[in-house]
Write a structure and sequence with these properties.
- This protein is α+β, with helices and mostly antiparallel strands.
- It folds into three domains: 179 residues, Elongation Factor Tu (Ef-tu), domain 3 (Beta Barrel); 63 residues, no CATH class; 88 residues.
- Helix content is 29%, strand content 34%.
- The chain is built from three helices and 22 strands.
- The chain has a six-stranded antiparallel beta barrel. The protein has a four-stranded antiparallel sheet with strand order 4-11-9-6, with no helix packed on it.
- The radius of gyration is 45 Å and the shape is rod-shaped.
- The two termini are 80 Å apart.
């Protein structure tokens, strides 16, 4: 009887063991596959709060001028070509002006003659003055007649007036010469500053005319001062109040991908641009801290700016790509995704400061866009590459 009971117990134990193995095998076969996720570790390092332009910025020259002669005429001399570097005051082109130059010579000769005549009149006035003084002395001594003194005094006054009139004529002649010089200058186009010639929109012997009022025409010469380039970029009106002159900036240029250049906010426009079908923005001008490092920059190139509002270093931080709405992250703990909340500080596109809630070393998911990633899901980790910037 006892032996039969033992056999039954052994049989039951075997059956239970087999059922357990079969159940385990069934669970193993039907278990959910772990989802591969990219994770990054909460670490310590620099974090910045920054704002960037909403649309592409533009590299601009510190000075750019479309230049044309102040008067119309035929191009008699074209002294520059596109791409040529010129100094301030250099002659760019001149119009036919033989008649004005001849008139200038005539005016200068007339001015010389007028000065000589004025000198003659004034010498005669001085002599008449001395003669009148002698006659006055003789009259006081009773030697000269009164009428002789009167004639000498009147002659001296008349010649003094003639001297003054001659001097006035000299001024008129000099003013006339200045007017002619101004007319001559209107036919000569000179560089107002040193720079490089971007465009020449005329040819030798071609006729040029000034632009009518309200009708823009291409300038004869487009001159660019490329010694101090800057970037003009639109910033969203919401971010504009936090930006002020002097803040540091990182500038990236499409022509040099993967590299940034240090800059500084030079100016924040005092008004908002209201462009139809576009967000309202404020123009911000940024200068390069080391212009010599970007001699290849060309006016009109595309550039982006990141204005650094605040920087902390070092602080606990988490990749911004791991942060969900509501100050949440998904942490990978023991092969399962767990939702955690934390208190963030400053942040930018790369990192977000962790003030509390996430211990150092916590593995957080950065591949939130992958299908099936959610709290409670079994997952396997793929270490993420560190963010490129603080």
């Amino acid at each position: 009887m006892e032996a039969r009971r033992r056999r039954r117990l052994r049989a039951a134990a075997i059956i239970l063991g087999v059922l357990g193995v079969l159940g385990g095998l069934g669970w193993y076969v039907s278990r959910p596959e772990p989802i591969p996720v990219v994770v990054a570790r909460v670490d310590s390092g620099p974090v910045e709060e920054s704002v960037a332009n909403t649309r592409a910025g533009t590299v601009k020259a510190c000075r750019r001028a479309g230049l044309s002669p102040l008067t119309g005429g035929q191009v008699a001399a074209l002294e520059v070509h596109e791409g040529q570097r010129v100094e301030a005051g250099a002659l760019l082109l001149s119009l036919w002006n033989d008649d004005i130059r001849a008139r200038l010579k005539l005016n200068e000769a007339q001015a010389d003659a007028t000065r000589s005549q004025a000198e003659q009149q004034c010498l005669m006035a001085e002599e008449a003055g001395r003669q009148a003084a002698r006659q006055a002395a003789l009259a006081q001594q009773g030697i000269a007649a009164e009428d002789q003194y009167d004639r000498a005094a009147t002659q001296a006054k008349a010649l003094a007036a003639a001297c003054r009139a001659a001097k006035s004529q000299v001024k008129v002649a000099e003013a006339t010469t200045s007017v002619t010089r101004a007319d001559l200058a209107r036919t000569r186009l000179t560089a107002p500053f040193a720079g490089v010639v971007a465009e020449v929109n005329t040819e030798l012997f071609e006729f040029v005319t000034p632009s009518p009022v309200g009708v823009p025409t291409p300038p004869a010469v487009d001159l660019i001062d490329d010694a101090c380039p800057y970037v003009s970029a639109p910033i969203d009106e919401v971010d504009a109040p936090r930006i002020q002159a002097g803040l540091p900036v990182r500038v990236t240029v499409d022509a040099v991908p993967g590299k940034s250049f240090p800059g500084t906010v030079r100016r924040v426009a005092p008004y908002v641009l209201d462009v139809e079908k576009q967000a309202r923005t404020v123009e911000v001008e940024v200068t390069f801290d080391a212009p010599a490092e970007v001699p290849w920059l060309l006016a009109g190139q595309t550039a982006d700016v990141e204005v650094i509002l605040e920087r902390k270093d070092p602080v606990p931080r988490v990749p911004t790509a791991a942060v969900l709405e509501g100050r949440r992250v998904l942490a990978l703990e023991d092969g399962v995704l767990v939702e955690r909340t934390f208190t963030p500080g400053i942040s930018n596109w790369a990192y977000t400061e962790v003030r509390s809630g996430l211990p150092a070393g916590t593995a957080v998911v950065t591949s939130l866009e992958r299908a099936g990633v959610a709290a409670g899901v079994v997952a396997v980790a793929e270490e993420a590459e560190p963010a490129a910037a603080p």
